[in-house]
Every structure is written in structure tokens, then in C-alpha cells.
């Protein structure tokens, strides 16, 4: 198998992990099956959506044969997972699905805008997306199974680097290390009281005989569970945030809690049943309007903290660890890491958050910004200060400076070879057919296959 197949597959998986696609129709022929792997199909719409995902991100798309190969490989992973009995827990799928739906709400501005854009209910969209998420998680698990415990040594990295001709060393873009200290805007007592009273009114309505599930669908701002009447399914102890779990476990089956506050907002909880170390609950979640929260408090807080850091009364990393409310960076002394590679070095280019890029462009290394308002990935209003820790100017690739990047390249290549070998061994275990229209792609050496072999007549 050509190595380009694996490369395209990795790129495609990056898109598949992030792009919420619901197969919107783009023409009468998009539902045509163009490839089949055992009982899994690749539609023309899958290929077009894959192609357009690159265009939409202003990236040069690979050749369509490469994309088709990647889609076939994806289906082959699913077919082999079925043969090997590789499964994923429904709770993992549901959790990822909830995150996807919340992300969509943030991008579209409201649930109503999503419904208008797709012409479908949220419940229908979620149902369509669920299989995509489940397939993605299974493929991810298969990849991990194939490449588990793979590591590279400094010697491997040196060997790779030395094999590159000196006149062919790539030119590396500028990258930076950036720290942050974050404080979230908090709702006022008055705002909380309005939300609290709304939940108490809903509790009274349930106690008067109204259906909790119906009220959750109509009022809960937890997009993922609201469509299921607020049902969160069974959860193991320790899986939910402490305030929620503590309140839920104090209830008897069918009892309803008082208003419970957590980092996610205000909850009304109903315990449905317990089963050993697990419990089954549903809730109605209401959150403050983050667009209307006052940023004055966190701004003053960070301004005072910045003064102490600049005066060297406290080090930035300790201040971040002790006072930042962003849990994902606080434990690392505020250091922001690349979501894909885990590296602390961030490319200072078009992939960087634009507001951060603009601010760093005006700062000197070692300086700390004034408090800056920003919106978190989950839609919360916050303020942060940025620490411009270091910068590496654009340069020809250097072994010492770029060791971490080179190490990631070597590891990726090693994983690709492992996946490549897996495909060569596994291709005989599945039946692959490709539409004659794509016979020139020569996927796994497969050429002319009739539309009839694909089980349909093709429009």
C-alpha cells in the first residue's frame, strides 16, 4: 500500500474528529454508493463532504482518489473492528455527542439557528450525528490498538534528521510559548436569584403533576440531555461534578433536589434509581446569559495579580497554578499546549487564535499583557492575562531547537508504517468493491468493479 494512503487517512481523521456533518443534500447523485467494504458503504456525498472540509478551511484538498482511499480505509477499520469485537461504551459516545452539540450551539448562536440552518429538529440531527461519533470512536480505538505503546528514541530522531540533505532542510515558521491566567465572569446575586426562582417554579410544576422530562426538553440548556428529557443515564460515582453528585445521592428514587449550583450552572435534579455503585438521574440545567455578565470583577482581580507578577512578588507559573480558573492550563503553570501534539510550542501563524496572535504581535518576550476579555471554547465569558514566555524566529530546521517537532514527525511516521502493515495483513479479511467511475484510483489494487457489484444501480 502506498504511504500516501496513510497520510491522507491521518488528515481525514483530523477533519472527522471536528467537523459536524449531517449529509446535507447537494444533488441527486450524492447518495450513490461509490465503494463498499463488507457491509459498510462510502457515498458520493461522503467524498464531497471530505473535499469541501478542506476548501472550507482554506486548505488545498488532496486528490479525490486519496480522499476516497482514506474513506475506504476508514470503513475497513470499522469492518475489522466488527470482526475483532472492538466496541466503545455508549457513555463515551454520548459524552462526545453532547460536546459536539454544545459546540454547534456556540457556532450557530442558538438552537433555533441550528434548526433553521439544517431544516431538522435537534433530536434528528443528534440521531444522525450519533453514528458518526460512534464510528469515529471505534476507528480511534482501532488506531490505538494498532499503534499502542509506540515510542521513539533520540537516536531515532537523530537518524531521521541526518538523513535529510542539508540543502533540503525545511524552513520552520516562528513558534512561541505562551502562558495564561484566566478568571471567569460570575453572575451577580440578582442574576442567580432569577435563575434559581425559575428552577423552583419548575419544581413546583413537577410536584403538581407535570412531566419532568417534558419540562427538561422545553427548558434545560444542557443540549445533549435535554432532547432525552434531561436523562443522563447511569453514572459511576465520581463521574459527575461533586455538587451534582452529592445532591443526587442524597435523594430517594423519584425525589427532586433543591436548586444545585455547579461550574456548569444551576441544576434541578431528579434521581431515578441506583444500581450498586451507579446511579441514574436526570436534570434541568439553566445557565446565566454569558453575554450579559459583568467583567469588571475579574478584570480588577487580574490587574492586581499582574502588578504583583511584574514586581516579582510572585512568579507567573505559581500565580497561574494558584489563581487561574482554567483547569486545563493551571496545573502546567498556565502554559498553553497544542491540542493535537501536546507541545508547548505554538505555531505563530494562521492556526493561532486570532485575538492571541494580535496581542502577541505587539508584545515583547518576557512581558505580560493587560487583562483581556475572551470567550472560552464552551462559551463562557472570561478575562485573562497572557505571558509571552519565549519565541523562536523562523529558521531552517535545527536538531536541538526543533527536537520536539522532529520527534512527533518520527513517531507519526512510525505509526503510519504500523497502520500500513496492518492494512496489508488485514485487506484479505474484508471484501472491497469500488465503482467503475473510480477505477483509476486503484485502491488496494482494486480496479474495475461494476455498479451492480455494489448492490445498486447508481443515481
TrEMBL record:
In its UniProt entry, the species of origin is given as Spirosoma aureum
Indicate what this protein is called per its UniProt record. Peptidylprolyl isomerase
> Is Transport set as a keyword in this record?
no
Q: Which Gene3D superfamilies match?
A: 3.10.50.40, Porin chaperone SurA, peptide-binding domain (1.10.4030.10)
Question: Which ranges carry the PpiC domain?
Answer: 173-273, 276-387
- InterPro entries reported in the protein's UniProt record: OMP_Chaperone_SurA, PPIase_dom_sf, PPIase_PpiC, PPIase_PpiC_CS, Trigger_fact/SurA_dom_sf
Signal peptide region: 1-23
Listed GO MF terms: peptidyl-prolyl cis-trans isomerase activity
A Pfam family annotated for this UniProt entry: Rotamase_3
Q: Which UniProt keywords apply?
A: Isomerase, Rotamase, Signal
Superkingdom is: Bacteria
